[in-house]
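thought: fold this chain, then report.
action: predict
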Amino acid sequence: MVHPGLATVAPSRQLLTAVDSTGHVHLVIGSNPLANARCTRSIEVGAQVKVLAAADAEIHYALMKRIEEGAVDWLKRDFQDEDLQTLGRDLIDGVVDAVFVTVGGKNALSMQRNCLRSRLTADIGSRYPYINSLP
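observation:
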C-alpha cells in the first residue's frame, strides 16, 4: 500500500541514502562507451577510478583520453575475484567502494554475485537490472 501523501511513479525506485564519493575507489570493469560514462560520473563526484580491461582491449576514445591525462588508472588485465578486496582504499583494508561492470555474459553475473557476497555496491549496466545493488 502506498502512503497517501507520497506521489507514485511506477516503476521507479526511491533513493534511501546519498553517498559522498569523494576519495572513494570505483572499479570499472570494461572499456566500452558505458565504461567511459561510468568513469566520467565517478570523476565528477570525486572518486578515484580504476579500469580493468585487457592490455589488448579496444578502449573507448574518450576513456583513453582520461587514462592519458591521468584521471583514470588502467589496470591492463582481466578481472580477478580478489580485486574487490585489494584495489580499494587502505582505510577500509583495500576493499573497493563501488563496482561498475560494463561487460556482459556469464562473467558479469559472476562478478555481480561476488559483489553481493562482499556487500559491495555494484552496477552491471542495463543488461540485468533486476540484480543491480545500486538504488
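thought: worth noting. The first strand starts at residue 25 and ends at 29.
final: C-alpha cells above.
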